[in-house]
């Protein structure tokens, strides 16, 4: 048995680069340009590690991965591929890849992965066949390193039941990531139930989560199952967890450790067989330090963290996302699919996207409905809301107001001003939309949940 690393890559120059880097790092390397050569060689000797491309002239690297899993269960396999979508990441991990590396990659990262693969040989006998990830519903799209890291985490967790905390600004795709985690988990066959702590009045949240018995409180005319019960055998997604009242956090923590709970007004314990995924747009660590969030619950939920950066920090995702969301908008509306011109895509990359992917989705819906031709060029894009200008009339008046308030010795000026500003804009938006919250939120550039929470807290 040799200690060589076997490299299967049909792109000659990339193969050469990897060979050089591996040799330089002191590894013995054997390179192959197709699968046939590897299959043959595997009958004769065994490598220390396999590095394989996916698309090869005589087949698919994932097929090889599967074969090797059967014949050489302890052999670490690193999959490298230019096809960098979530599905590929999940398939690679499901078939037992030790790691998955999207191209183009940093050669140092590649070498570091090789070292890790060699030092921690895997037992990969617990992979479960072809749990195909044919998830229906919207697909996650993203090419940026940040989104690739998200895909890898989802793939790596595909056989796990761990809690995950998903953080990111409103509209960055937290719920979509939660769904992808569920769809690519052993619980995929079970329900996915989402609860938004910000959207439910605090006094109702407990019975919403845990259900209630008949007569538990005034108005509880019948027994009602809670979200925990509905999510039995599946996943419970707790959105805006930072908004959960502290008393309920305590209860949630107990359920997580005891794996059972009581309905409100109930005396029979109910088994809780759910995986918890949580999300927040807030800085939970800060909430903890300020005493608004229980530290122990924070640690319990924060086992694995997926951080989704705002769209403006991953503008390289915009072209593919825009194409994808345009196609989705066409499907939703039943209208003919549009295409962005190169100029339009360039213009889109330059926007601020304070509403993140949701804002881009809304823009795609709008141009699908509004544009006349099939091509959407830069001029056909709805105007970006002008950034607040310094010389705006209302800002000058705001300064006067602040002056006057300070003169009266009032404090917390920004707190009051921001609250008043938000109240005014919410009233305006609800007027505009005739009370329709979804539309009002869209006007404001907020998520519907954000609007609901703010309306509640006003
Ligand atoms: N990477 C992505 N690929 C494709 N679609 C995306 C992606 N990210 C977000 N979306 C779409 O953007 C919209 C907003 O995403 P989502 O509701 O998951 O955001 P969120 O972070 O949960 O927002 P909020 O915090 O306001 O609830 C959805 O329509 C979602 O399908």
UniProtKB/TrEMBL annotation:
Response regulatory domain location: 4-118
Pfam families: AAA_lid_14, HTH_8, Response_reg, Sigma54_activat
Domain Sigma-54 factor interaction: 140-369
Compartments where found: Cytoplasm
Keyword annotations: Activator, ATP-binding, Cytoplasm, DNA-binding, Nitrogen fixation, Nucleotide-binding, Phosphoprotein, Repressor, Transcription, Transcription regulation, Two-component regulatory system
NCBIfam families tied to this protein: ntrC (TIGR01818)
Designated name of the protein: DNA-binding transcriptional regulator NtrC
Native source species: Natronospira bacteriovora
Protein's gene: ntrC
